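Hey, sorry to bother you again with one of my protein questions. A protein chain has come my way and I'm curious about its shape. I'm sending you its amino acid sequence along with the backbone structure tokens. I owe you a coffee for this, so here goes:
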Amino acid sequence: MLRDDLLRLFPRLRDLPLDAYVVGGAVRDLIFGVAPADVDVACLDPLACARVLRRKVIRLGREEHLSAYRVVDGPHVYDFAALLDGNIDADLARRDFTVNAMAVDLRSGELLDPHDGRGDLQRRLVRMVDASNFDDDPLRMLKAVRMAVRFDFAVDEATMAAIRSRAARIADVSVERVAYELTVIFSANAFRRAVALLRETGLDVPIFGRAITETFHFDDVPLAAALSLLVGDAHAFAKRWRLSDALMHEIQILQRLRNSRTLFDLYDAGERVAGQLAPMLHALGRDTVALPDFAMQPLLTGDEIASIAGIAPGPRVGVLKRALLEAELEGRITTREKAEDFIRSEQNR
């Protein structure tokens, strides 16, 4: 019985009042054969339920829009939210997708599945509970893409049509929430599927500022590489969706390396960023590139270069040091003696 599995995985559920229900993802995951990482509980008084566990209670959401309370008990995470309209049927009817609109009654152990979420799990289908629920929270449109990518599910046509007609409303959602969904979507090693769904739902235009028309040829594309293929102006995109400066810079570097690169350019980008170039090129249907030895160091220090060139420390030393390293990366300089000769030759040009 599902209740027994839930009590085994989340033992403090035994302490809750009888009017409590486990809802959403934990029920879905158990039916789908996946161990849930946390559990969502719907009850009449979520704060009272949270306090029953006698652990620190964490408020989730802003003061004016309090959504839930969280309790962490060792490895177990319990989230508590109020039953919508004080009724489990009304609560499930307001949820996003049928596979998330299931509940287990902790009193009776009964599985409540009024929208055939279990059937849709078997059909591997993302299907909305009601189109109006997208109006309550437009982020659910992007969550449909995330769920389809994560579980390799199809999105049913009525759900797809409801999203297409509302796609522009994704701009009404807080940018942090959109950025989180995009990060999850493009970290799932299903790049082509993600792009196809964003295109089919019409979410590509409000998110990326254009329709995505390119054909791609590879799926295992890391996040920065994926965005570098879809974003025009990386700085504007990062500013709009409040991406980190680090991610923005990675996107910009990969866009520069896409069409023009030397071994030094790759070395300068660093192993983690340059390592994303090969899957990015695969996605474009291009051949991969040879990467430099990222452990390589110049054969001469800056002070040694200054002494050999007969110049004071300054920008010129940096130019010579870069030229030396580039020659080493290309295999033209392999010994200290040749490095010294190279510096003298470069300085005397």
